[in-house]
Amino acid sequence: MKEDFLHYVWKFQKFDVGNFFTTNNENLRIKSQGTHNLNSGPDFFNAQIELGDQLWVGNIEIHLKSSDWYAHHHETDPAYDNVILHAVWEHDAEIYRKDGSVVPTFILKNHIPKNTLQQYQNLFSKKNKWINCENDFDMVDSFTLRNWLERIYFEKLQKKEKVLLMELKESQNHWESLLFRLLCKNFGLKVNGESFFSIAKSIDFSVIKKCCHERQDLEALLIGQAGLLEGEVEDWYFKTLKANYSYLKHKFQLQNENVIHPKFFRLRPPNFPTLRLAQFSMLYFEQENLFSKIIDAKSVAELYALFSVCGSDYWDTHYNFGIGSLERKKRITKSFMDLLIINTVIPLKFCYAVQQGRDISEELLKLAAGISSEENVIVKKFNSIKIVAENASQSQALLHLKSEYCDKNHCLQCAIGNSIIGSSMKIIQ
To answer: Tens of pLDDT along 263-279?
Structure first.
C-alpha cells in the first residue's frame, strides 16, 4: 500500500456507499474533498466536512498510519494547525493539535472495496511486465486513451519549453539563433546531436548571417568548425573548403576547441556528418528569414517545402571527402523532415506562442497529426498491446507516457491507470 493510492481515493472520493464515522464515533459527511496540494503542507486544502451538526472548513492530511503524523513532526508545524480531518489506512495512535485538541480521524481501510484493492495490487505487481497495466491496457476505451495522449503530448511540449527557454537565454533571447542551434542539433540525430549542437554554439549567429549569402562560405564554416577539414586529403573540394575555412576562421576569430568531434562509426552514409552539415548549410543558404517562415507555416506541406534541400553538386557523388559514390541528389528525405518538424519546429512554435501569449494548440495538433507515427521500440511495444499511435502526436505522447508515468510508477496520476482501478470503484453519492 502506498500513500498516493490513498490520495487518489480521497481526491476522487471513491468509497463504498454508506454512513461514515470518525474513530471517536462522530458522524462524518464529506461535502468537499478540497484541492490536492502537490507542494509542502497538508495534502488537501479548503475541504468542507460535517462532524455531527457542525460544518468545518479547513485542510485534510492523509497517512498510511495515524502515527505518521508524529513521525513527520506535524505536531510542531504550524502549517498543520488547520487540519480538520486525518484520513488514514490504519489507526494506531490518537493525534493531537498543539493546543491539545484531538484531530478527528477517518479510517479509509474500512470503506474501500476489496476488489478495488485487488485491482490496485494487480496493477503494481510487476511479474516481469513491461508496464504495470500491460494486462489491462487493451481494455481501456479508445476515447480515454485519445484524450489522455493529447493531454500528455502538450505536457511533453511544456517540458521541452523549459529547456528551450534556458537555451533562449544562452542565445541572448535571439529566436533566430535558438532555431539555428536546435536545427543543427537535430541534423546530427541521436549519434551526432550533441556534436552538432556544440558546432552551432561555437559560432555567433551574426557570423552565420554574414556567411549565409555565400553557400560555400557557410559550408566551409560549419564543416571546418566540426574539425572535418583538418589534415590533408587528396580531394579538390576538401582543399577548396579548407582554404575558405582558414580565411573565415581568421576573419571572425573563431575557436573550436570545445566542439565535440562528430562520429562516422556505424552510421549509414546518408547520415555522415559531412553530408548532413552540407545539407544544413544549404538550408540556410536557400531559406532567408527561416525563423519567420517556420512560425508562419500552418501546414506540413509548407514545412516540407522549406526543408526540401540537398547538398551542393559535389555531394551528388560523395558522402565524405575523397570517397566517391553513385551519382544522385542527396536530398533530405521525408522521414528526416518529419523528425525535424517533430523535434524542432513544433516545440519551437509552441514555446514562441506561449511567450507571445497565444494559444496555437489546435494548429500544432493538426501539424503533428499530419505526420506518421514514429517507429521505435517503445511505440512498437505499445502498439503490440493495442494499436494506439497513428500519428506523431500520439507516438510522442507514448514516449512521454513511458518515461514520465510508466517507468516512475505514476499510474495513479495517469488517466489509463485511473480507468483501470476506477472500473471497480463506486463513487460516493
So the answer is: 999 999 999 999 999 99
